[in-house]
Amino acid sequence: MTFSVTPVSSTTGERDRFRISFAPLSLDEVYNLANDPANGAIVVMSGTVRQQTDGKPVLYLEYQVYEPMALAIFRQIAAEIRQRWMDTNRVIIHHRIGKLEIGEISVLVAVGCPHRAEAFEACRYAIDTLKHNAPIWKKEYWADGSSTWVSIGACEQTNANC
Question: How far apart are CA 83 and CA 10, in angstroms?
Answer without folding.
Answer: 11
